[in-house]
């Protein structure tokens, strides 16, 4: 049977079963379109998440507490109160970790932020001035947290762009006041918008001096008596120094925490975060 004969038989079959043939073609079209759409959505989401993680900074290490245990139940990573502000200061010492260029501890919690009749529930971060450069934050208005603010435990804050819009609309918030957990803070700056993805928006936050967070908002200490922090962000001088910095930080913290067994902290690289 030649090609023309085969084609003629096929056309007669299609003509005799028009409904069945139409449904078959429709199913094929819908299936192909669905696969293409899912692949496009997946690739778009991957690119957006990768861009967001990249916008956090470069050559970063994230030092976080280990897991807390209660009886036979082990908590999630980061649930233990083992990292301190003093640990961050030790890591920032070039004699201890020469591969570290910037060190920025942070302490965070959720809180209600109120301005007049408007309010939002958002995350509050206690930070230091180094946080601005390390995490690539730009200031749209005003100024960032300063070293003087940290030393004086000042009641000042910097608003993310979404928070500023929700609380003040089109008004300039610089110099105005907001209440965080019923404590009054003066707005000194507004961050440039960075956007967000499924990991959360980087514009829905409020930054305060880390000492203010420690003494005014989240007065918690570790078992050793240090001032607790959630994360110690470390920017390494060069990508080739990441392994060296990880080893230096591990040795330092094991010595400071007097660890003889399993580490009570974890160190995650930016590359590992991108990989996951």
**Tally of individual helices:** 9
**Structurally, how many domains make up the residues?**
2
Which parts are unreliable, with pLDDT below 50 for 5 consecutive residues or more?
A: 69-75
Report strand %: 25-35%
Order of helices and strands: HHEEEHEEHEHEHEEEEEHEHEH
Fraction of residues in helix: 25-40%
Structural class assignment: alpha+beta
* Gross morphology: elongated
Strand arrangement across the biggest beta sheet: 4-5-12-7-9-8
Task: Tell me the span between the first and last alpha carbons.
Answer: 56 Å
Average pLDDT number: 83
Strand element count? 14
What's the gyration radius in Å? Answer: 27 Å
Q: For the report, how would you describe the main beta sheet?
A: 6 strands, mixed, barrel
Folded structure, characterized:
- With 276 residues, the chain is an alpha+beta fold.
- The protein folds into two domains: 3-53, no CATH class; 59-275, no CATH class.
- 39% of the residues lie in helices and 30% in strands.
- It has a six-stranded mixed β-barrel with strand order 4-5-12-7-9-8. It has a two-stranded antiparallel ribbon with strand order 2-3. Strands 10-11 form a two-stranded antiparallel sheet.
- It starts with a helix and ends with a helix.
């Amino acid at each position: 049977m030649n090609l023309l004969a085969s084609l003629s038989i096929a056309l007669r079959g299609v003509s005799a079963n028009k409904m069945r043939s139409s449904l078959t073609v429709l199913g094929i079209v819908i299936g192909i379109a669905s696969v293409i759409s899912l692949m496009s959505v997946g690739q778009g989401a991957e690119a957006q998440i990768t861009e967001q993680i990249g916008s956090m900074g470069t050559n970063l290490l994230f030092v976080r507490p280990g897991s807390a245990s209660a009886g036979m139940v082990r908590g999630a990573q980061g649930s233990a109160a083992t990292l301190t502000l003093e640990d961050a200061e030790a890591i920032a010492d070039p004699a201890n970790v020469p591969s570290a260029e910037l060190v920025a501890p942070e302490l965070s919690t959720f809180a209600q932020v109120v301005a007049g009749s408007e309010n939002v529930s958002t995350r509050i971060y206690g930070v230091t001035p180094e946080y601005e450069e390390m995490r690539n934050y730009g200031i749209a208005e005003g100024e960032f947290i300063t070293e003087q603010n940290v030393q004086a435990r000042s009641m000042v804050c910097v608003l993310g762009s979404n928070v500023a819009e929700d609380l003040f609309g089109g008004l300039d918030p610089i110099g105005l006041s907001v209440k965080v957990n019923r404590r009054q803070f003066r707005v000194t700056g507004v961050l440039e918008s960075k956007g967000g993805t499924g990991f959360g928006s980087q514009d829905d936050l409020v930054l305060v001096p880390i000492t203010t967070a420690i003494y005014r908002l989240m007065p918690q200490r570790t078992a050793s008596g240090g001032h607790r922090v959630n994360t110690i962000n470390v920017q390494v001088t060069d990508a080739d120094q990441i392994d060296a910095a990880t080893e230096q930080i591990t040795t330092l913290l094991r010595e400071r925490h007097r660890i003889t067994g399993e580490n009570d902290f974890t160190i995650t690289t930016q590359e590992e975060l991108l990989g996951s």
